[in-house]
Amino acid sequence: MSSVGTRVFVARLAGTTVFDPIGDEVGRVRDVVVLVRLKGAPRAVGLVVEVPGRRRVFLPLTRVTAVDAGQVISTGLVNMRRFEQRVSETLVVGELLDRTVELADGSGSARVEDVAMELQRNGDWLVTKVFVRRTEHRGGLLRRRGETLLVPVEDVVGLARPSAAQGAQLLLAQYEDLKPADLADVLHDLGVTRRLEVASALDDERLADVLEELPEDDQVAILGALERKRAADVLEAMQPDDAADLLGGLPDEQAAELLALMEPEEAKDVRRLLAYEDNTAGGLMTTEPVILGPETSIAAALAHVRRQDLNPALASVVFVARPPLETPTGRYIGLVHLQRMLREPPHESIGQIVDSDLEPVAVDAPLLTVTRQLATYNLLVLPVVDEQRRLLGAVSVDDVLDHLLPDDWRETDDVHVGPPTRPTPVVTRDEVGRG
């Protein structure tokens, strides 16, 4: 059991495993919810816990029986409803870290790097200490590494209000191990202003990966908030089909401006995709599958599919065509599955093991036809050709799923994925009393 006076630093708590009373893992701590008041110490009311299925739920601190090194013990009562932040609530990792505050003694400003909460005799958890780093200016320049201080929470001013320009380095450090889809969930749960701040702090490649996993409204808002040249750079880093989908949600004038700022070769592929109807093979496809000539050795083909930037579906197949090998290619010959290549001598050419029996789909084929073809032949990716049988691109199963699922599927909590689990007692939001 946690004893009165137990002090916990939130940045260190993030990522800690949560267990129920019999030792089964419930999830991992992702954040702490506090009520920041104009007077008095902020009160911590609960944990944001990521449970299986990438869902983030609220675990009241009244349901936490112990906080020890490397683990949190709960009573086992968990409300499995997706966590939705209330107006009065503040997320420590998501919103307080990197916030600029003033030191009450008048000695200058500082950035919050961590906060400590302590268990009180009445059972409440209060934020009692703030770990800050001074922001110092020398010669008109901001010093990167100022003095660090651990101060009582009453010795800082401004914790209750967001700063005009808040950093995001500490938050991103907490989530650097997350996959793009998981980081997209984190961004989606943040307030609008904070979401834009965090997105802007990501590098172009990471932001491109995350944008591909966000709902369209979030994509458009984030891209619209970026400086135009940077927005074009991020679009270039995205898969052409995802970039086309995003530009299709923008006003025509803005989309045309961004296309003009992109590199001509990158913009050409996106423009081509924008010309197709959404629910057709052309509207679904990417123009950058793995395409090789029939004389390519199996060893060389395997090297191509090992590329880190290739998603698993596209890496499952090599398409074989006559030159030119960029879409639209020369005449399409067939495809070679990764599994088949692994069974053959590496010095043989892929032209000797090509599968030419699988018929590609036409660029104007409707979504239903594409879906049936993928399901019939148990494929992860399907070739798309024009009337001259030139390869134009490929449709992957993830692109099809994006169009088959409801628009709000990322926010839907009623789908369970994975093996059956021991039932977890559920309590309602009103029963846990979030303050």
TrEMBL record:
Gene Ontology CC terms:
membrane
Annotated region (Disordered), positions in chain: 412-435
PANTHER family named among the record's database cross-references: MAGNESIUM TRANSPORTER MGTE (PTHR43773)
Keywords attached to this Swiss-Prot or TrEMBL record, sorted alphabetically, are: CBS domain
Any one Pfam family match given in the protein's UniProt record, by short name: SH3_actinomycetes
CDD domains for this protein: CBS_pair_Mg_transporter
Which molecular function term from Gene Ontology is one that the record holds?
A: magnesium ion transmembrane transporter activity
Q: Which domain of life is it from?
A: Bacteria
Name-wise, this protein is MgtE intracellular region
Residue ranges of every copy of the CBS domain listed in the record? 354-412
